[in-house]
Amino acid sequence: MTFKYNNPSHSKKVVSAVLAGMMALSAGGAAMAAESTDTGQGQTATASNTAAPTGLFSDIKVGYWAEKHVYKLAYQGILLGNNGLFRPGDAVTQQEAVTMAIRFMNKENQLNDSTATALPTNMEVGNYFKPYVALALQLGLIDKTEESTVDVSKTSWGQKPASREWITKLLIRSLNKDAEAKAQNNQSTGFADNDSISESGKGYINLAVSLDLAKGVDGNKFNPTGSVTRAQLATFFSRGETLTDTKYPNTSTGYVTGLKDGQITLVVDGKAVNFAVNSSTPYFTKDSESRASSTDVKLYTKVQIVGATGTASYVEVVDATPQVESVEGTFARSLSGNKIGLFVGENYETYGYDEATAFIDQNGNAIKLSDITADSIIEVQRETFSADKKTVVIRVKSGIVNKSDSGVVSEVTTSAKTIKLTNAAGTTEQYTYNDNLIIRYQDRILSLAELKAGSAVKYTVKDSILQTIELSQGVEQSLRGTLVEIGGNQSTLTFKREGGSLEAKLLAEKPEVIINGIQDATLNDLITDATNGDQVELTLNSEDRVTRIQVIGRQMEPMNGVSVVSYNSKTKVLTVLDSNKKPFVFTLDDKTKLDYNTSKPTLAGLESLLNDGRKLDLTYVGTRALSVKVIYKYEGTISSIDTSGKKISLLSGNQTIAVPYSTVPTIEIYNKSGASLSDLKIGDSVTVTLGSNQDYVQKVALNTVAQFEVVSVETNGRVRVKSDSLTSQFYVDQAVLTGESGQTITASQLTSGNLINVTFEGMTPKAVQVVKRTLAEVTSVDASSVTLKLFNGQSETVPVSGSVKVVKSGSTLTTLGSLTVGDRVEMTKDTDNSTRFRVLTVMSKQFWSYDGVGNQILVKRESTSDTNYRFALGTGAFVHQGDNTLSVQSLKDNDNIVLYLLNNVVLEIQKQ
């Protein structure tokens, strides 16, 4: 069998300088391009020297393990066949391997026929190969001294099959890593047949293994004298192309901007190039050896096409992620200079377009720019694979609409003046509104604030502007005003609207009262006064009864650091002096909020402390005392600790307070027993508790914030939590609790799985904030933002400023670059307000069954010793196949699934 080569004078510049990629010198590993062999008589065979025809090689069938790589190199003209055969299982000769290394390094332009006569006498090669071998000696790809000792008694040097060790040396030297390899020659390779490897070859094999270029064979052997097949080395060169920027004359890599029947359009180096395709065009993807389908080629993905004169002979998807970004806004008008103007939110922006930009309507039909009317909602898609970010598609999402329909309100966005509705057909629509919008329920006109998500409505639209919305049933509404009076039997409420008119409302039974800082507030905690009453937001149900009263402002005045002059327990009159020794008189009543060093203060308990000279903080309206606090503690940051003078100084507000101590005070720090003064430092936020006479420090509590996951909540206010798999518990009945949006909540509203930030005063929880948890897939990331695909299918771009933490594979990193597209993450705020992303662990398994009682899934064991086959399901775990949401009960035995876990709890299941 002979093979014919291209004439060197017409040789193409093929593969370039970097020999890299995966080379498993065992079966299925790296490979070499096919070349012809010399006849040994100075004559070469006369087979055609053109690239492989469309039919390729009859001995490379569809599905052959190296089909992808052989096809690509054949269409690139890098390898040739003979009479329609490639002979993939034939061993590669040394002269063939050297020739391909020269071509791979793009050194054919340095071939010189005159130097070929200088080959050592024992290095007999075919005439065609002589210039290649001579150049290889000059470049140091083969060592003249080493080759002089080769046994050529049975076959010539050139026809000698290339061994695995010899090929490894050739590859490492082609990588210009000869010195690195030699530095490892005194190290064992770790293979069982290490003694069979030459001393001069061990360093090359060590380096090749560390670079993932070489691997062993069965039995942890390297088999240094084993041969390398043509298919194996062809695969090597094909994979090596991904690590080089060499430009091939008939190979184009770019981004797909057009897909038509029989044609693919690529943008290559800023220019659009069309390639014809047909039913015989082979398609592949980067990460698979098997053939793909033409449908795997998507718009704006990165693709490599091999083929001359506009015809694609080979297509490979290099990166399947579409390189586009989308902006949605309201079309304003077309501008000169091929630009359009649109409103994105409240901002006016312009976008350019060119002759390649596609204009389409809601149904994907081609339209002209002139067909788009003002105020239409449009989506602008721009490619992100060039600095120009050219506009590739302008799509109308909703044009001018005139209609009447019924549906449900989904969202009201006052900043953008838009309302989303889900119509009777189940389609989500969004319309703008103006000040002329009429909202009514029966014969009552409602305000926009009374229109809530979930309301069933009928609506009319004219010129895409909402004209009327009529509620089908009563809904909650909100009103604001000044609280004037609560009826004697607490069944009515009188308030003054923000407009100034008095209005009375019936109270629902046991209305909710929300006052910041007062746990379980009641109607008695409200301040009623025609002038200085509480500013409140009232929530009314569909029957127009008040169900919720939230205090949003109080007119009270503070007076801090006053000294008691006298208190009359009969008249409840308190006389005090302010810091300027000016007297004031206040009256206490059963509504006055009391605070002294006890968890359940009473007026009787306070009265015993109101002796001459006692220091107080109070708030008041007129002569009515709204709150009285006996100063028993100070909050601030430590400015100094004087152990010799026994004094602690705090910066509290805008003043420095120095508090002495007679004996070393108790130091209380959460999660630290036996704390002492040495555990405190300047700048720490602390609460200093005073003794009974307000004259010395009794306790110093360090104010800290810790983050936990709620395990369970008990009715007595005790919360069980875990952090880093450690479980603890504490009471939150005296703490201020707020939800994700800052709203006041009760302990019973905490649920298992909530992430909470707890502010401790020493060992005592003083505040609990529910932390928002966003679970999503990373779809793009840059230095200042992350785009996430949420479990509901919506996309959200999150700007990230300030510090960031990425917890991934057990390490905490501090740059967004640590995230990769496809990562599943939990996004939260840490205790220091930094944005934190915890990357979920990924496992590929086969489904077995679902345990509904324990809310667990069971997967197939990988072996009899595998004990990691049962996984807990997180609350609301997302189960899906593509964009279709599934139930866990729909999974079947042997389904291939991917699990995404956080702390060994499954949060997402993706069915393959």
TrEMBL record:
The question of whether Signal is a record keyword is answered with yes
Q: In terms of domain of life, where is this protein from?
A: Bacteria
Q: Which InterPro entries match?
A: SLH_dom
* UniProt keyword Signal, yes or no: yes
UniProt signal peptide: 1-33
Q: Where is the SLH domain?
A: 53-115, 188-251
- Report the Pfam families cross-referenced here: SLH (PF00395)
Q: Which UniProt keywords apply?
A: Signal
Q: What is this protein called?
A: S-layer family protein
Provenance organism? Paenibacillus pabuli
